[in-house]
Amino acid sequence: MESNIAVIRGDGIGPEIIDAAIGCLDAVAERFGHTFHYTFPLMGGAAIDTTGVPLPQETIDTCLQSDAVLLGAVGGPKWDNLAGHLRPEKGLLGLRSALGLYANVRPALLYDQLRNDSPLKASITKKGINLMVVRELTGGIYFGPRGFRQGKNGQEAFDTEVYSINEIERIAKLAFEIAMGRRKKVTSVDKANVLDSGRLWRATVSRVAESYPEVRLEHMLVDNCAMQIVRDPSQFDVLLCPNMFGDILSDEAAMITGSIGLLPSSSLGTTKPGLYEPIHGSAPDIAGTDTANPIATVLAAAMMLSSSLGLTQETATIEKAINAVLDKGYRTPDIWSNGCKKVSCSKMGELIALEILKTK
Ligand code: NAD
Q1: Beta bridge partners of 275
Q2: What would the pLDDT profile of 107-122 be if each residue is shown by its tens digit?
Q3: Ligand 1 mean position to 280 CA, how many Å?
């Protein structure tokens, strides 16, 4: 297969983790006989330094013409004092909007080899953590009417949670499709005991569920869900969330797996290319030291292969390769513990690429 992949290196550790991921993609290409054509459009601080804006039109065009977009991370103190519209993060928001990305999909997986890194007790982690947060990304309270006004007690501010049936159906279908390829369970999160938007969310998700009789649906109030994630995360398969609840719960789910350097995410639209990235930022404190953990970015590339290019066997091969490297005791500093072999970011990338070439 031939594919065009737009690769945005970004800022801070972005170029280091992206180089490791490209090494792994090249190994996949060699092993399975694919050709990946990479382009390297600029975004974030790197784009500001070169072109004066965080998201040049050329970058949008290149991404739209690609089959998928792989991103390192953007931002850093160098650009923190610029005006709001020139901040690196504006580039990311602009790109999400240009690509029409309405869903954010974030797996939270605890590796057996890293159980001790979880802040949860061993009695909880022994049952494993392998859940997928499917978050609605373009609706809800972050996008509803908002503002400041004079109320009876003086100035007040308001934000409004708004969801249409169409928006809920679209994200619910995606969650059920994802569940079909996993353990066939969807937990839909809402606040239906208080919010009308929550009641519409619950009714709509229940209706979508009728088209997926094999998938077990449960509804859970968001406050209970936040508690259940730390009480017994093994009960969850796919967590379907409105925008704000997904924002919060996906960080909670990430935390219980131990390291921010291990988790990828994908943002998906209807027709345009998906965007794949690690969940962490540009980590300016360790940029340039070759100590970042590249696994989240390698896993983002793996998600890209199955979600955008239909290459599921290749995704599984990358995942197995990462497991094999961890089994052999190799660790970047963020997940290192006594008795393990400490390796750099680039070395970790090379080790995974080598395993890809030989993993059956
Ligand atoms: P961060 O995720 O960059 O870093 C938080 C901590 O985690 C740091 O101590 C960092 O060293 C560590 N860390 C992060 N990734 C790591 C990895 N792969 N391996 C090892 N350690 C890792 O969050 P922050 O410090 O709040 O933000 C730094 C910059 O990143 C800011 O400019 C922020 O706006 C930006 N940011 C960008 C994105 C994105 O591009 N999607 C997301 C979040 C933050």
Answers
A1: 69, 267
A2: 999 998 888 889 999 9
A3: 5
Which atom of ligand 1 is nearest to 294's Cα?
18
Q: Amino acid identity, residue 203?
A: A
C-alpha to C-alpha distance for 92 and 98, rounded to whole angstroms: 10
Q: What does the alpha-carbon distance between residue 222 and residue 141 come to, in Å, rounded to a whole number? A: 15
CA 57 to chain centre: 24
- Nearby residues of 242 by Cβ (< 8 Å), 6 or more positions away: 135, 136, 139, 140, 161, 163, 189, 190, 197, 198, 201
Half-sphere exposure of 319 (CA within 13 A, CB side): 18
Going 185 to 186 to 191 to 195, the CA torsion angle's sign is negative
- Ligand 1 binding site (Cβ under 6 Å of any ligand atom): 17, 73-76, 89, 92, 260-261, 277, 280-286, 292-293, 296, 334
- Its pTM stands at 0.91
Segment (H or E) for 83 = none
Euclidean distance between CA atoms 29 and 25, whole angstroms: 6
The total of other beta-carbon atoms located within 10 Å of residue 159's CB is 13
- The preferred substitution site among 282, 291, 293, 342 for testing ligand 1, maximizing ligand atoms within 8 Å of CB, is 282
pLDDT, residue 360, reads: 60
CB 239 within 8 A of CB 187: yes
What is residue 297's three-state secondary structure?
helix
* Residue 86 pLDDT grade (very low, low, confident, very high; cuts 50, 70, 90): confident
Which residue, among 52, 67, 73, has the nearest Cα to 99 in the 3D structure? Answer: 67
